[in-house]
Write a sequence for this structure.
């Protein structure tokens, strides 16, 4: 491609690639470029999650999360089947391990049904038919939950974008974006790129990309590292599928759960601790810039003041493998600590507003010839194809109007 392109999508994770693909479907012939700062796509949140296709049971009825997760899960399964990507619908258990959790479990089942998700209530004996080693006071089963190779999905989407005449430029970091009479001039550290429309899908750097384009989002991305343990040896044989606890309703995190992946490896986790870098996958990963930004944001102190006690519990579990194993043993008491060892971590991009509130729903910022996805945590991978279509529909009107007045974007092979 040369000259001015119709749309630039910043971010080569599953969401950015799904958006670019949806734009090409929505606007056949449109010139689309994806910019990804890493050398390969899906390097961060897309390639570092549990690989679960969520059914949509956790999210507030009527929210974008609920709507898009339910539709997105079904669409993700179809996409994987069409492109030969590893996936299944294995189902999962959500388990109450104490009597105090039973009312919360029932409320979660009601929320799931309100979202159109079928759940089956199980007695402790029925739980053992699914998972013989799980300790349960009560539970329900969600048949629609599945697993997918999300990195494989992202790679397939990248190939589709290129096959459709677009570009996926890796190793290219988007810098300042300046409004011009015809759209945007985007600094890439090389030759500037001209685009009629700018879409930000930058995950861990979503707020920075928005600010670089002149937006002033009323939230900041705070990085939460999700740490996992590999479950190996005889303990791995104690888990057949996916086993989740009843989540704490105060947080958008699901708690330590046990998952058998498509590769047959079993993981316990994640916890959720502040990372000292936006790409802080280890305690030793420290970015002074990221830490200063986090501490300077007024919502950070308010968040800590509100949730310091559970936050401290998460940190202690991060530092103590014994505590981490104890959390997993609430679900499967027979786990042997000798069979659990540290595994690679992920980092969740969580938007937090000035009041210290965790943004729960997906959040999009509309601008002048621009749209930025500010908050897209789990289940964004599950819902990525639906979110991409939503963005494409909102962007398409703008691109069409611009093209009608300015003529078609120039492109070359």
């Amino acid at each position: 491609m040369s000259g001015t392109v119709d749309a630039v999508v910043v971010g080569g994770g599953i969401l950015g690639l799904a958006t670019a693909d949806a734009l090409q479907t929505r606007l056949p012939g449109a010139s689309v470029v994806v910019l990804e700062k890493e050398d390969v796509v899906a390097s961060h949140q897309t390639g570092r999650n549990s690989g679960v296709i969520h059914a949509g049971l956790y999210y507030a009825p009527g929210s974008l999360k609920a709507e898009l997760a339910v539709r997105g899960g079904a669409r993700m399964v179809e996409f994987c089947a069409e492109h030969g990507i590893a996936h299944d619908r294995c189902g999962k258990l959500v388990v109450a391990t104490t009597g105090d959790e039973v009312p919360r479990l029932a409320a979660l089942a009601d929320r799931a049904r309100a979202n159109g998700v079928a759940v089956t209530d199980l007695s402790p004996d029925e739980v053992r038919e699914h998972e013989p080693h799980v300790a349960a006071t009560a539970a329900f089963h969600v048949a629609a939950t599945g697993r997918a190779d999300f990195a494989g999905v992202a790679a397939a989407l990248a190939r589709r974008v290129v096959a459709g005449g677009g570009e996926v430029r890796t190793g290219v970091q988007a810098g300042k974006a300046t409004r011009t009479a015809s759209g945007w001039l985007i600094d890439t550290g090389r030759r500037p790129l001209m685009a009629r429309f700018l879409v930000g899908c930058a995950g861990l750097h979503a707020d920075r990309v928005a600010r670089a384009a002149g937006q002033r989002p009323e939230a900041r991305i705070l990085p939460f590292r999700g740490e996992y343990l590999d479950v190996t040896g005889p303990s791995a044989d104690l888990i057949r599928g996916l086993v989740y606890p009843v989540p704490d309703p105060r947080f958008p995190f699901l708690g330590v759960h046990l998952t058998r992946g498509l590769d047959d490896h079993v993981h316990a986790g994640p916890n959720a601790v502040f990372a000292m870098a936006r790409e802080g996958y280890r305690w030793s990963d420290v970015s002074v810039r990221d830490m200063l930004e986090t501490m300077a944001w007024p919502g950070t102190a308010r968040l800590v003041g509100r949730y310091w006690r559970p936050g401290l519990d998460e940190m202690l579990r991060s530092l103590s493998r014994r505590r981490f194993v104890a959390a997993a043993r609430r679900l499967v008491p027979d786990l042997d600590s000798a069979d659990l060892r540290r595994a690679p971590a992920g980092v969740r991009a969580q938007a937090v507003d000035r009041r210290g509130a965790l943004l729960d729903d997906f959040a999009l910022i509309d601008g002048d010839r621009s749209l930025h996805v500010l908050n897209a945590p789990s289940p964004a991978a599950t819902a990525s194809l639906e979110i991409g279509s939503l963005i494409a529909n909102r962007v398409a009107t703008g691109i069409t109007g611009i093209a009608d007045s300015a003529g078609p974007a120039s492109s070359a092979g």
